[in-house]
Structures are given as structure tokens and as C-alpha cells.
Amino acid sequence: MRDRIKRVADLNNRSVNAELLVLLERTYPAETMIDEYLQDIADIVGKLPAENRTDAWQAIFERLKALQNETA
Fold first, then answer.
1. What is the number of alpha carbons within 13 Å of residue 68 lying toward its C-beta?
2. Could you read off the pLDDT of 7-35 as tens digits, one per residue?
3. What digits encode the pLDDT tens for the residues 29-64?
4. Is 48 helix (H, G, I), strand (E, B) or coil?
5. Which one-letter DSSP state was computed for residue 71?
6. Dihedral (C-alpha) 58, 60, 65, 69: value to the nearest 10 degrees?
7. C-alpha to C-alpha distance for 15 and 24, rounded to whole angstroms
8. Which sign, positive or negative, has the C-alpha torsion 58, 61, 67, 72?
9. Mapping DSSP to helix (H, G, I), strand (E, B) and coil, where does residue 38 land?
10. Is 28 helix (H, G, I), strand (E, B) or coil?
């Protein structure tokens, strides 16, 4: 496996360590990104008129559930 990673690292003009960091970042993205996205969504929904918030949250939850099913 090390040889395979070395070949890819060479193709990308990176060290093996740098290549491993890129692979790890792709596999384990920072949780703060997800937290930031969720906060952005909550801020947007919070700006909606109160009577529209429930529908907005329902649509968001349905989309998240669909995404979960796609990745399962």
C-alpha cells in the first residue's frame, strides 16, 4: 500500500505524508464545517416568518433523510 500511495503522491507532486493528509481530510472532513452549515441553515430558517418555519424545517429534515438513504 505504501508504494501505491507513493506513486500517487509523486503524481501530485506531494510527499507521502502530505498525500496521506489530503486523503485523511477527504475521508474525515472537519466537523466544524458541518456545524457551520447547520448554523447557517438555522440562521436562514430563523429569518423566515414564524408561520413558514415548520414547513422549512420539515423540508430540510426530509432532504437530510433522503441523503442519509443515498449514502447508506
1. 6
2. 999 999 999 999 999 999 888 877 777 88
3. 777 778 888 899 999 999 999 999 999 999 999 998
4. coil
5. H
6. 140
7. 14
8. negative
9. helix
10. coil
